[in-house]
Amino acid sequence: MEMKRHDKPGSLSPVKIRSEEGRAGRSEKELKLPPEKSLSDDRQRRLSRASESSKGTIDRQDSRSSLSPKVPRKYFTNWKQACDKTKDKTKELLKRWKTLPEGEAAQMSEPGRSEEEKHGWSVHVWTTWVNRCSEDLECLDLEEEQPLAQLSAVQNEKMTLFFTELLDHDRDDVICDQDFDTFFEKLAHFADWSPNSSEFHILLEVKREFIEHFLDPLPNKFAELPYYRRVCGPEAGGLPGRTTLEGWLARWALLLSEPNKFADLPLYLQYFCKILFHIIDRTGVGEITKDALASFYRSVIGLPAKRIEEIIDTAYDRMTSNSYLILDYGTFVHCYINWLMGKNPNGPGQWVLVPSKDSLPQPPFPVDYSALNTEPGKLEPYAPDKKTNRHSVIV
Prior knowledge:
Blueprint: H1 15-31, H2 39-67, H3 73-83, H4 89-98, H5 102-119, H6 153-167, E1 174-175, H7 177-191, H8 198-214, H9 220-223, H10 226-231, E2 243-244, H11 245-255, H12 267-280, H13 290-301, H14 305-320, H15 329-341
Antiparallel strand pairs: 1-2
Helix pairs in contact: 6-11, 7-8, 7-12, 8-12, 13-14
Keywords: Calcium
Region (Disordered): 1-71, 376-395
Protein name: EF-hand domain-containing protein
């Protein structure tokens, strides 16, 4: 260390050292470098800034969505993705909606509520699940004594007359296979068909089908139901192979509940129609005349002559539309269909087999057909204020 000359002896002044320390301090300040930044620190800071900016954006979007009734763009994108390329669109949309996070689902439900409050309109969606019954009718939960099908009052009357007048000969309210044998033998005898003829063999096949459908046990899908177990079961007729009037009507109701036209009927009922036509037209002229119909009523149905005289004109007029049509096979098919399926009175089907025993109902107003055949010069013009002796008016 060196001492300055003007300093007093005994005083130490580290002038040189101070200058060196200052120079060294300046050099250290000048040479001091910032700490090195690693690449990982920069990436983390960038990611943190990006996350903060995205979070701010999401917060702004949430605030806008809560204030605005408009649905976010993301909802429509999700809806299109859920429905555009799927076969069952509604089911897939509901599935996607159920799997959404709670926050997003709540966010999507809020705009709908705000828009509903704004406009006053509401949208309701109903979902119905249809349980289709199987062929075995296992899903039917019918009450006690409830049939699956019923006949109308007119159909009940026609099928009851078939049962009582043509099948139940001993009047015990029960029919068996012997009653069917007697009825079909009477038909073959009236038509004069020999046992070797093809018509007779067809008649036998139709008789077997009647016995199978009306005397044999019902299929399991019907036989297990309480109502049909009571009216059509083995104990209904006292012995197996028998049926009562109630079971007869119940089987007809099941049989006629599905067909809508002649071609829908079972094959044996279609053949039964052709058999009846050829039996009534036993002369083979191709049409049923009034005399042939009266002969059928007398020999097969068993009506007395006085009753036949009372009803034959009305019966033939109803079946031929007042003799406008020829009662050939095509016309007879329409009458036969009305006999099976007609649910209203005064139809031509009431005269196919057993005519009704009640008196014929009168029409609500008389129809004067004579004016249609009057010459034009003799026609009297109608005027409300003109007095006339006419009882009908052509409109």
